[in-house]
Design goal:
heterodimer; A: 417 residues; alpha/beta; D-Amino Acid Oxidase, Chain A, domain 2; 2 domains; 8-stranded mixed sheet; 11 helices; 18 strands; 26% strand; B: 80 residues; mainly beta; two-stranded antiparallel sheet; globular
């Protein structure tokens, strides 16, 4: 289904009764060339780019619930390319370029808003780290501007600039960073994939992965067996369970990350802002709600809800940085299941079983990676070679120790990234 | 979530730190067993055996916890 101004006007005047579904709702065929397990952002983007870039359309996306109903529907919608380490840097740079052309690629309004992202720093040491990171971003061809104390005060006057405890020395400004409408991204990729002939099959839970003689032959699902030459596991926090169906153990521990949104307010926070002395990041949605989050709860969880100590910590960090938040009422909070790896960086690679592919380990940075990840996994599925932007996301880097990408240098512990 | 320390009784989550999956530490030089110990995880959705430390009395604990519900069924001293 397509939108145009005349149709919107006509539908608006006639009770909006003429709108149809955005994508087909087919029954699964007995066999496909490629089966993608997981109809979230990454899975749908992979499907779209398989069709758009490689002309492969004998493909199914299997989703146990509804499309975009996992972490894609429960994130803080931040899009950025401010990574430091080689491997990550070129990938997120490529992903941001795909974001910038996504709306024309998909002919879909994903409300991508490059409102700028500012990482605050609060000490000389943090300033040095920000300069280093900014230089790495510029070397990658992206944008970074170092803001001093006075420039920052002019730009973000609502911060508590005069606090003695966590003085704000400045910020690293990434003008191309911003936010997007998360659901629309899933819907846009879904429509684009479906229009090109890819089957998106909802309410279809994978219950087993068939392996014969070291080669994948298909999957067992709640809607019957589906044969496939290639199977990709793109299931974020559930990657461990799905991989276990093929007898694999992954370097992943699933943790809970909470996020929050307030009642709708008049425009007050123009950018995405992150605190440097506590884990806190905030932006304002187009509806006016302040969307913010903080740290993991730090223990493994599949509950999709967290505990109150983390809530308190996030609120305290927010209040410390922006005392004006005290009057805003939190409408709701939620939790997502984060697939945490030992170095905090993702995996896009072949599994040790022929025909099985992994796209997982996005920790809590998966949203901005949606187009980059889909593009790279589509390339890997189509050509059996990693895409140039994603050569670092190897599964074996943990075993060999070569090519680890630990941006924060916190060591091989899953919950510390 | 509240945990029951064998020494101090039932205390708030804030007093405890998660210390990883309760795996058996391998012996010998680096090899597949060490790789699995450091990196690979069962990552269960359900009963999970974990190390936690009670920061107040510094005791390391072995905790049997359900990752779907956060219900804690057993806490014992790690060295026991």
């Amino acid at each position: 289904m397509r939108f145009n101004a005349l149709k919107i006007l006509t539908e608006g005047l006639t009770g909006n009764k003429g709108w149809g579904p955005h994508w087909r709702d087919p029954d699964p065929k007995p066999a496909y060339d490629i089966v993608i397990i997981g109809g979230g952002g990454h899975g749908l983007a992979t499907a779209f780019y398989l069709a758009q870039q490689h002309g492969l359309t004998n493909v199914a996306v299997l989703e146990k619930g509804y499309l975009g109903g996992g972490n894609m529907g429960r994130n803080t919608t931040i899009v950025r390319a401010n990574y430091y380490l080689p491997g990550n840097s070129e990938f997120y740079s490529h992903s941001l370029k795909l974001w910038e052309r996504m709306e024309s690629d998909l002919n879909y309004n994903v409300m991508h808003s490059q409102r700028g992202l500012i990482n605050l720093f609060h000490s000389d040491g943090q300033r040095d780290a920000a300069v280093r990171r900014g230089n790495a971003m510029i070397n990658q061809g992206d944008d970074a501007i170092l803001l001093g104390r006075d420039e920052l005060r002019k730009m973000l006057p609502y911060l508590d600039h005069d606090t003695g405890r966590f003085p704000i020395h400045g910020g690293l400004y990434h003008p191309r960073g911003g936010t997007a409408r998360h659901d629309a991204v899933a819907w846009g990729f879904a429509r684009g994939a479906s229009d090109r002939g890819i089957d998106l099959i909802q309410n279809c839970e994978v219950t087993g992965i068939d392996v014969e003689g070291g080669r994948v032959t298909g999957v067992q699902t709640s809607r019957g067996q589906i044969r496939a030459r290639k199977v990709a596991i793109v299931t974020a926090g559930r990657s461990g369970q799905v991989a276990a169906m093929a007898g694999l153990r992954l370097p992943i521990e699933s943790h809970i990350l909470q996020a929050f949104v307030t009642e709708g307010l008049k425009p007050v926070i123009d950018n995405v802002v992150t605190f440097g002395m506590g884990h806190f990041y905030i932006s304002q949605s187009d509806k006016g709600g302040l969307v913010f989050g903080g740290d993991l709860d730090f223990y493994p969880s599949y509950a999709q809800r967290g505990n109150l100590p983390t809530v308190e910590h996030v609120m305290e960090a927010g209040m410390t940085l922006m005392p004006m938040l005290s009057r805003a009422k939190v409408l709701r909070s939620w939790g997502g299941i984060m697939d945490m790896t030992p170095d905090g960086s993702p995996i896009i690679d072949k599994a040790p079983i022929d025909g099985l592919y992994l796209d997982c380990g996005w920790c809590y940075g998966g949203f901005k990676a949606v187009p980059g990840s889909g593009f790279a996994l589509a390339h890997l599925l189509a050509t059996d070679r990693p895409h140039d932007s994603a050569t670092g996301f190897r599964l074996d880097r943990f075993t060999t120790g070569r090519g680890l990408m630990d941006e924060e240098g916190t060591g091989a512990q899953h919950n510390l990234h | 979530m509240r945990l029951t320390c064998p020494h101090c009784g039932t205390r708030d989550l804030r007093e405890f730190t998660y210390g990883g999956a309760a795996l058996e530490r391998p012996t010998g030089d680096w090899g597949p067993a060490w790789d699995a110990y450091v990196h690979l995880r069962e990552n269960p959705a359900g009963a999970s055996f974990e190390w936690w430390q009670h920061d107040v009395c510094a005791t390391w604990l072995k905790v049997d916890r359900d990752t779907r519900t956060h219900v804690i069924s057993q806490v014992t001293e790690a060295r026991a």
